[in-house]
């Protein structure tokens, strides 16, 4: 009997020892197309709640993994996640290959959606520009974000002044005042800054861009009729980051950008500074500047506090000093003399604050409070006229988010105020105060695995223009074969003010104030429909296509018409501004190569004019091609863009043109060097028609429909003291 008991004990001890055996293992992850190691992929043991990230050789290392069967998940942004079962110990090497996904944004969470869902599960169509592409555009134009936006399908950067370079963004053929510019969800730009807004936002401290085309007023209020652009700032990480970027152009433009960030357990900080100097540049030698003499300084410090894992509090300041003077080169450089009298000078100062408090109430609910105060001071001077004023805007908002297995809810309320105060010495007082209260609710609901519905309703009340109900609805269909489609629509509105493109074109001279007793707010409706498909044409070639169709109509559009005594008065249009069109985006990938093709049809009609003419300065046909080669050491890009014929305000048809650009960058361990050939075929408007008409002492400036600066060659250096990946 004792022998049997002893045998049972020995068997139990042996089983227990076998049960406790563990192994140290390595799992290697490769790309399916190129069979190359994948750096940064995540390997996760579900039952053990244990994960690791692959190294430069594509290897994730684990210690003390219990022997037996385990379910693992391998994932990496831009690739299809792999779920599989492995046996430990294994008689063969643990090597797995990930297949590249056609939509590399599936794992990206976008702030403009105000949801924690990924792109693949959001019915609203959101275009995403990530850090990599932002870095390329920052090299091409380190002074402002115009390059980022200009090369997006269906977006036009419309220059309104040769002398100042003022530029407005047009989405789908609609004026810049219909696009809302946000930074980290704050409406900091527009209004009195008008066409200077784009020129005063450097790109180096931005993490990503999120673009919504069509009415987005449910979540963001008035002004987002054509769409919105949300610029998301970089945030500090435990690893310190320091980027120093120095750029010089042949047109005598010099730019320096510095960004630093670092955080510890409780505190974090990010510091950004930018300086730009441009000498007045006249490539035609016609005596007038195509680039104004500019001195611009920007700073943006932020302080972060993390009292717990669930709560973040941060405070930031954004400041800009910008002085630009353009016009007669002789007067700019030597002062007024004889016929050399005309200049346009814009001196502006901006200071804004941002405060955000975010806390997680439980595993599915959170609250966010945000507040900003923005101050803008601008002095515009041309011969015999001065426009001087200050604008103060405030924004306060509180939102509550909650989510369950199938539905997300966002509810919130906000208060927006705007106060423009013109200099008391001005002959026409255009002071304007606006106060708008808003409340909103937005829901995303999974009808099934394939269908997702988003509905929203905002109710805004403006103390002068009344009540605005803004419903919105979107529907998403998706499947596992690479196909998805979205359709959505909503209403929008815009509170009128004097800061329109037409008023800016004449420097706001003799423009009467908004008469709130006779002018109605502009209202809009719009619908978007798009289809997406992604697949692999072969083991090495990836393909994706996105096709968008849209319609937007604006009622009571704000028009600037001449009245008696040389004055200009705002009136509501008697009929619609109607914009419809299509956008096509195609992408091919092959190893280290990417090829993007795009086409935009923009058909914007002014139905309030006889014959419903095409909107002036809006090309009906636009196309582009971008070919990129990217490896660890090199980044080379070649761009070609076609702009079709346009009509001027007098009905004259312009010529079409093609611009080309070439970027070459070499990466090293501690930074990069680059050269950029922007518009190297030197397409500029002066080759087609004059930029300046006589008399010299009181010139006339025709409308701008093509580049004015021509070929710009730049060289630069990016210094990363904490290092890139080792590219030697």
TrEMBL record:
It comes from Patiriisocius hiemis. This is TonB-dependent receptor. Belongs to the TonB-dependent receptor family. SUPFAM superfamilies: Carboxypeptidase regulatory domain-like, Porins. Residues 119-227 form the TonB-dependent receptor plug domain. It is a multi-pass membrane protein. Keywords: Cell outer membrane, Membrane, Receptor, Signal, TonB box, Transmembrane, Transmembrane beta strand, Transport. Residues 295-679 form the TonB-dependent receptor-like beta-barrel domain. PROSITE patterns: TONB_DEPENDENT_REC_3 (PS52016). Residues 1-20 form the signal peptide. The keyword Signal applies. It holds the Pfam family CarbopepD_reg_2. PANTHER family: HEMOGLOBIN AND HEMOGLOBIN-HAPTOGLOBIN-BINDING PROTEIN 1-RELATED (PTHR30069:SF29), TONB-DEPENDENT OUTER MEMBRANE RECEPTOR (PTHR30069). The lineage of its organism: Bacteria, Pseudomonadati, Bacteroidota, Flavobacteriia, Flavobacteriales. The keyword Membrane applies. It is found in: Cell outer membrane.
